[in-house]
Each structure stands twice: as structure tokens, then as C-alpha cells.
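re: ur question from earlier - yeah i can do the single chain one, its not a big deal. heres the input i used so u can compare w yours
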Amino acid sequence: MTTRHTISHADELYVGNAYQGGYSPDGRRGIKMTHLYAHEFLSTAGVPAIAGDPDGFTCCIPTAATAWTITGANLLLLMSGPLVSSVGATVANLDVPRNIRWSACNNVTAIHLKVQGRDVYGEPMAETIRGLAAGTVACGMRCFKKIDSISITGAWAGASIVIIGTGNRLGLPFHLADKGKLISVSEDGYAFVPSGATGESIYTVHIGASSATTMTSSGGQPDARGAIKFLSPAPNGTIRLTALMVIDHSTQRKAFGPPQVSLCTSAV
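and the output i got, formated as C-alpha cells:
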């Protein structure tokens, strides 16, 4: 039987008998315990996160007769890609929280993709991803662990190939308020360098949505907690990716970020 206890609700904890005058605000003994958290990007199966799958929900190829007149319908019902358990499936579970991407053969600048799902804690979340010119990839910013539905905001005539999948922007479990709170990102123990710096292993940081206000937009805002996009090398199911970050546990909002947007009611 496992027992769990919260040691203290104090804002700060000091440990040990070390003493240095002027170190602590009231002259107490001990060294302040840090709030560092090392997050490994592991799937529920306990293996490192695999690479994003650009067409993981497979191509939807409507005929000219049906076209895209299924505005608002759950497109997962029409898909049979590797991220969908079976044809006609109504949900898709991802290995780790990650972003959604899509493209189309037609120009879809006036049509947007709506994604409804859940985050790593099971909280409902949603995102509207803008459509782009033909053949251009549009990437979402929020990181889903589970997809409940994928739909479009409009319809267009004629057949088109639409490719929907996932990217290599992996979500963090705690709120990253600013880049200074991210201490390091490593691959099998070797440090990555930020995008634009000289090095072999590269990543970009996406800080979490503002913790000062509630997220209200249906699209265009960052993930509630923040994410890291692994550029080179990309996750491949073999290398172990780790992020070391500082957590502010003074309030729920500061630790986990603002509430998720749970419903897309309009286009971006």
C-alpha cells in the first residue's frame, strides 16, 4: 500500500543545519529547498516520445459528389490512420501531449480546423487552427493528449486531399511562465541548444499562456502550460528527452497555468 503526504503548505522549506548569517530572512538554519522539476517526455508505455506523425489521421479524400459539405461533422469517423484505432473510431489517444497540424491540396484560407480533446490531466480543451494556401502546413499551438473530434468550419466544392497529423511540439506538465524558468533541455544527457544558436541538438521554447488572465480565444494562443518543439534530432522513440524547469507552486494557476479553452465557438 502506498501512502502519500503533503509535507508542508509553507511557501518555503529549509533543510539541514548549515548556517550563514544574512542568508535567510530571519536567520534560520538550513538551505532553502528548490522547486526544480525534471520532466521526461515519456509515453504511457514508458518509452521516449516518438516523432510526430504528419499524416497520423490519414488522408480524407472525398469525391466530387460528397465534397466537403460535412461542416461540423467529426472527421475522425472518416479516418483510418495510425493514430486512429480503427475505421469509424470516435477518439484518438496520443503518446504524449503534442500539437496538431494539417494541410490540403485546395486553398483553404477561409476554412479552419477545429480540434476538441483533452489535456494530460483529462481537462477538456479545444483549438481552432487556421487554414492556409494549398499545400501549406498549418500547425496548432496547443498540446493534446486525447482527440475527441476534428471538424472543419466551412465547406468547399470539389474533391480534395486533406492531411491531418501531429507535430514535434511536446507539451509540458507545469506552467512555463518565461524562458528563464527553463534550466536545460537534454537528449540522453547531452544538452540541446536553443534555435538560432550553434550546436547539433536544437529546440524552440513556447512559453505558456499568460497566468494573469483566463484564456478566452478559440485559436492563436499558446498552450496553457507551454511546450518545447524538438527540431534536431526529432523524437524517434529511442533518445530520451528531458526538460529541467522551475515550478512556482504558490498557487494552482502559477503551477498549472490558466484554464484550458474547452469550446471553440467561432473561427479564429
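The helical segments are 252-256. not sure if urs matches, ping me
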